[in-house]
Amino acid sequence: MVIDTGPIPNAPSLWRVRLGLAGRSLKQNWSLFLRTRIGILGLVIIVFYMLLALAHPILMNTVWDERIYDPVIGFAFDETQQPAPPSLSHPLGTDPLGRDILSQLMFSARSEFLLGLLAAVVTVCIGTMVGATAAYFGGLIDMLLMRLADIMIMMPGISILIVLSALIEVGHLELALLIGILSGFGGTGVVLKSQALSVVVKPYIEAARTSGGGTLHIILVHVVPNLLPLSFLYMMFTVTSAIFSEAVLSFLGLLDVRMSWGLMIHTTESAGYLLQVGEYWWLIFPASLSITLLCSSFYLLGRSLDEVVNPRLRRT
Amino acid sequence: MAGATAVGTKPLIRVEGLEKHFPAESHWFRRSDSFVHAVDGISFELARGESFGLVGESGCGKTTTGRLLVRLAEPTGGHVLFDDGEGASTDITTLRGDDLKAFRRKAQMIFQDPYESLNPRRTIFDTVAEPLKVQNACPPLERMERVSRMLEMVGLTPPATYLFRYPHELSGGQRQRVAIARALVIEPIFVVADEPTSMLDVSIRTGVMNLMESLAERLGISYLYITHDLAVARYMCSRIAVMYLGKIVEMGDTEAVLQNPQHPYTQALLSAVPIPDPTATRAPVRISGGVARPLDPPPRCRFYSRCPIADDFCRDNPHPPLEKKGAGQRVACYKA
Q1: Who contacts B205 (Cβ-Cβ below 8 Å, separation ≥6)?
Q2: Residue B54 forms beta bridges with which residues?
Q3: pLDDT reading at A174 higher than 50
Q4: Is B139 within the bounds of a domain?
Q5: The total number of structural domains that make up chain B
Q6: Which of B243, B246, B177 is CA-nearest to residue B215?
Q7: Which residues contact A299 (CB under 8 A, 6 or more apart)?
Q8: What are the angstrom distances between the C-alpha of A40 and each of A35, A172, A228, A292, B121?
Q9: Which of A143, A201, A202, A204 should we substitute to test contact with B (largest number of B Cβ atoms within 10 Å)?
Q10: Taking CA A38 as the corner, what is the angle to CA A34 and CA A42, rounded to the nearest 5 degrees?
């Protein structure tokens, strides 16, 4: 491939050239991504829920009456009995407390996204640094970090979260940080370290050292960028596990959150409708289907990104 | 030490009894009992502007020696005196912090494998500009110009078409040229070249060697040229040292060593080079076995177990010292 980059750019326009290069590689990766069907499916589901999340505040401010449709304190005065089955004014019906299910679903979608992405970012930041440092330094630092990782992996995640939520008030933010720390210092850190081990022995690391580059320079400029593709992959998987943990904890009623998909099932369960799925399907299916779909969509996205960054998995 | 350097000029590098021992096993609380003697007390001098060749088969310690000289590895013992011509020579084996960083401006390394020595995620510009950047060798706005000039010098012209490409878009020869550009862009006076042409196609080898030679002349660089290929050593180096299991067994002017080898190992190495004439015959030098691992070697001559002319004297005495023999080279052998 011959690319004519034209005359030598002068230094101030250097960032423009870099932007162009980044755009080019993004384009290439995008076309690879388009070839993986499962990735497209995942992305479609994610975009669907994003639209739901974005539409909620708009609907609340325009069409929906706040007293009726508020996901937490609203009450469907227009229905004679609660829970009411789906109707034109309440497309997914109302819950045992007379609140609109569609509104709850859309309201919760936003916090699920924020939770998942925050947990993923925390995981990847910690995991990448742990992996790079452990692999680069080796020896005692490596041993300490990896034994810490063993402890994190050993800890039964959900049980720890149950105990913690009994001790302190755990909301979405705290949960995201907890999941991020557990997974970043744990499994994700170990996987990224094994990748980093194959990077730190490359001659270009030695070349950087011969050039006079310090430890920080080598880790940030040479090791971490070569870990990023794998980091992004694990970011997607963390989103899945974060959303799932949130659903479990709020179903058990242990989370200090106003509304979430898990909490919707919790409400159904505590009102005694959980075992009557056939009759009251709208109380359970919207929330549980949303949890399943969003979890699997991020997983599918991760799998297809795996194919993009890992040429060996690509079908020719 | 009697050097082959001209009278009156101090050598650029004087290596004295350099040693590198790797622990053969790792223990938690005590030192390892056995060591691999990768480099075992070697001494040589490298004159200013000279290309000094280090030849030997794989595992003889030549690459380790090169890495020691640019401080990519810490020597176990010995000294490396580096004289940059700006005052007294410094022992680089004890350099730390800023002094080490300053030394790295003067000594660079070209690596063997051009496919692994360039970071795949960085553009050619980023790679070549890296030494300038970490050493703060020139104002940021001048980097582009210096990198372009360097790329032109190594024959990647026009530089604009190469600056913002990634290593995977270049051929092996082009990559090695980039690696050479990276090593030379901060104008070092000493470069360790670790088999820079061994991974390249034969067709482009000569081109890269010619390039390195002409750059050495233009920029006043001294090479320590590590190779297993005697023809390459002959082409590139004015003096060579032959290494065997961490020891220098023969050292001298290239022509003297190659035309008139004294040490049985050098003779065997030379007899292994094919002659491009199907009718030519040459008395083969019989050496048996393969290279041993220099794990806790006995004090006697390292070549004893494979040597065709060794006798009891060789077995009972320590490794022979380098002595002047033959056409002026120095040889470590009692019998030669």
Answers
A1: B197, B232
A2: B226, B241
A3: yes
A4: yes
A5: 1
A6: B177
A7: A42, A236, A237, A240
A8: 8, 28, 22, 17, 26
A9: A204
A10: 95
- State the count of interchain CB pairs (< 8 A) between A and B: 90
What average pLDDT score do residues A239-256 get?
A: 89
Sheet holding B90-91, edge to edge: B35-46, B13-23, B77-82, B90-91
* Total number of residues shown for chain A: 316
Domain that holds residue B101: 11-24+33-273+290-331
Residue A142 to chain B, least CA–CA distance (Å): 14
**Closest alpha carbon to B154 in B99, B209, B191, B78:** B209
Q: Among B181, B174, B180, B143, which Cα is nearest to A2's? A: B174
Question: What residues does each domain of chain A span?
Answer: 32-84+96-313
Nearest to B248 by CA among B62, B42, B69, B17: B42
| Interface residues of chain B, partner chain A, Cβ below 8 Å | 70, 72, 101, 104-105, 107-109, 111-113, 116-123, 127, 130-131, 134-135, 140-141, 143-145, 148, 159-161, 163-165, 169, 179, 182-183, 186
What is the pTM assigned to this prediction?
A: 0.83
> Residue B48: which of B87, B8, B75 has the closest Cα?
B8
Domain presence at residue B170: yes
> Residue A23: left if φ>0, alpha if ψ -120 to 50, beta else—which one?
alpha
Tokens representing residue B166 in the block: 């990634």
- The reply to whether B324 falls in a domain is yes
On whether any CB of chain B is under 8 Å from the CB of A204, the answer is yes
**Which amino acid, residue B321?**
P
| Contact between A66 and A74 (Cβ < 8 Å) | yes
Q: Give the strands of the sheet with B51-55, arranged side by side.
A: B107-110, B190-194, B222-227, B51-55, B239-244, B247-253, B329-331, B323-325
Cis before A225? omega within 30: no
Secondary structure class of B183 (helix, strand, coil): helix
Between the two ends of chain A, the Cα-to-Cα distance in Å is 19
Closest-CA residue of A relative to B186 is A211
We report the CATH number of the domain holding residue B214 as 3.40.50.300
- Hey, is the C-beta of A21 within 8 angstroms of any chain B C-beta? yes
Q: What is the pLDDT along chain B (336 residues), one digit of tens a residue?
A: 344 444 446 789 999 999 999 888 777 777 778 888 889 889 999 988 889 999 988 888 899 999 999 999 899 999 999 988 777 788 888 888 888 998 999 999 999 998 899 998 899 999 999 999 999 888 888 888 899 999 998 988 888 889 888 898 898 889 999 999 999 999 899 999 999 888 888 888 888 899 999 988 888 899 999 998 888 899 899 999 999 988 999 999 999 998 888 898 998 888 888 777 888 777 666 777 777 777 888 888 888 888 888 888 888 888 888 888 877 789 998 887
pLDDT at position B308 is: 85
- Angle (deg, nearest 10), helices A224-251 and A172-185: 130
Q: Which amino acid is at A2?
A: V
Q: Does domain A32-84+96-313 have CATH number 2.30.30.30?
A: no
Parallel, antiparallel or unpaired: strands B35-46 and B13-23: antiparallel
